[in-house]
Amino acid sequence: MAWTTPSTWTTGSVLTASDLNAQLRDNMVDVGQPGCVFAIMGSSLSFGSSASETYPTSSRFTFSSLPLAKNVTVSGSKLTVSVAGIWEWSAGIMWPATSSASASSVRAIKLYVNDAASAGRDMRLNVQNVDTICGFGGYQVSMAANNWVDLRGWQNHGSSLSVQTDCWLCGKLIYRT
After folding, report:
1. How far is the C-alpha of 3 from the C-alpha of 24, rounded, in Å?
2. Which of 9-13, 41-45, 100-104, 173-177 has the lowest mean pLDDT?
3. DSSP 8-state secondary structure symbol assigned to residue 99
4. Which residues are within 8 A (CB) of 147 and not within 5 positions of it... i.e. 6 or more apart?
């Protein structure tokens, strides 16, 4: 059920079952079912490397939505919200081990909102022959309806790197505006 803006009642207004159902019952159901999505990476993704910290659009992770999605649509790399409010995002990825890591090797993920970099990110040293795990939780951002987020990755060392389907991005609506 969609949110219905409640009426401003005045003295002498006649309440009908239809009004109460739409403005109270249905809105209570809607509020009790906040936006939520848990998306997982749908297929492997190959990354190149860059000497500077850049997260090009070619490094976007692509996702498949699980049945949990509400008030969010998942299309490729973009998770689009249909309800305005404060959304909380969390993400995690396991970069596979590589033998080409050096003492200065770094891998990272960053959350983008409408193609703008956010403060939601994690950067980790890449230890040779060991999986590298990046993740962040509880990053809150104000989003308007039809805004979207995507998750991008970056590495500064080695040849191309294929990331398997161990990546996830989770969002939940914590305050409706």
Report:
1. 10
2. 41-45
3. T
4. 80, 81, 113, 114
User: What whole-number distance in Å separates Cα of residue 82 and Cα of residue 34?
Assistant: 11
Q: Give CA–CA dist 50/112, Å, rounded.
A: 18
pLDDT at site 141: 97
pTM, two decimal places: 0.81
With DSSP H G I counted as helix, E B as strand and the rest as coil, what are the percentages for the chain, rounded to 5? 10, 45, 45
Distance from first CA to last CA of the chain, Å, rounded? 17
Q: What CA–CA distance (Å, rounded) separates 31 from 1? A: 10
Q: CB of 109 within 8 A of CB of 134?
A: yes
**How many residues in the chain?**
177
Q: Tell me the β-bridge partners of 163.
A: 45
Q: In the prediction, which pLDDT does 157 show? A: 78
DSSP structural state of residue 24? I
3-state DSSP call for residue 27?
A: helix
Beta-carbon contacts of residue 152 (< 8 Å; ≥ 6 apart)? 55, 56, 57, 59, 60, 61, 109, 110, 112
Radius of gyration of the chain from its Cα atoms, rounded to whole angstroms: 21
